[in-house]
Amino acid sequence: MTFKELAAARYSVKNYTDQPVEEEKLQEILKVAGIAPTARNAQAIRIYVLKSEAAMEKAKAVTPCIFGAPICLMLAYNEEEVFFYPDEDNGVNSGAEDCSIVATHIMFEAVEQGLGTCWVNKFSPSEAKRVFELPEKEHVVLFMPLGYASEKGKPLPKHTQKKPLSDIVIEL
Ligand SMILES: Cc1cc2nc3c(=O)[nH]c(=O)nc-3n(C[C@H](O)[C@H](O)[C@H](O)COP(=O)(O)O)c2cc1C
Question: Is 60 helix (H, G, I), strand (E, B) or coil?
Fold first, then answer.
């Protein structure tokens, strides 16, 4: 698949079969995650692979958006390793950006592996941190269920409802 084909094939899977994700496929996905760019190449990101029943139960307690996936990734960053925007005192940093680029790599490599994902931010980061007993310096940005789409896990109608480019592209 070309990148354009991958990008066109990706959609948010909101219903999964219970078919396990093969370890080799997971490892391929994690390898592609690992080559994503990060601010200053500091790699402040942490990818938690939620595989055990206990970990998946915790994920389901934190968000309603696991959708029956057999496994889930939880992406976080360490605040001591991120890049802080210069001349700002509002604490804005690259943590969410770093996690987002890594998550995007994961989404597309998942498609290449025949798997589906869904980006999930419907959760309380502080609750996720507490439930998973993360170090104080780590902050959860997103969950990403991973697995095989079920028959019901088809693209939602809004998948193709896009604003015209002229509404979102501004030439200066
Ligand atoms: C930053 C972000 C957060 C999202 N959070 C959720 C979520 O919490 N729950 C959910 O069901 N879908 C979530 N989605 C999926 C979007 O609803 C979905 O990407 C959008 O409707 C477009 O559909 P598509 O991904 O199939 O193209 C999220 C997507 C993004 C990019």
Answer: helix
For a substitution probing ligand 1, which of 106, 111, 120, 154 has the most ligand atoms within 8 Å of its CB? 120
Angstrom distance (rounded) from CA 134 to CA 131: 8
Containing domain of residue 63, as a range? 3-168
- The answer, yes or no, to whether any atom of ligand 1 lies below 6 A from the CB of 162, is no
Counted residue by residue, the chain has a size of 172
The count of domains in the chain is: 1
> How far apart are the CA of 89 and the centre of ligand 1, in A?
30
Note the pLDDT tens digit of each residue in 91-122: 899 999 999 999 999 999 999 999 999 999 99
pLDDT digits (tens, 9 = 90+) for 14-65: 999 999 999 999 999 999 999 999 999 999 999 999 999 999 999 999 999 9
6, 11, 104, 119: residue to mutate for ligand 1 pocket, most atoms within 8 A of CB:
119
C-alpha–C-alpha distance, residues 128 and 137, integer Å: 13
Predicted TM-score of the model (pTM): 0.97
CA end-to-end span of the chain: 34
Domain at 73, CATH number:
3.40.109.10
Mention every residue, 6+ apart, whose C-beta is less than 8 A from residue 154.
11
Report which residue type is found at 118: C
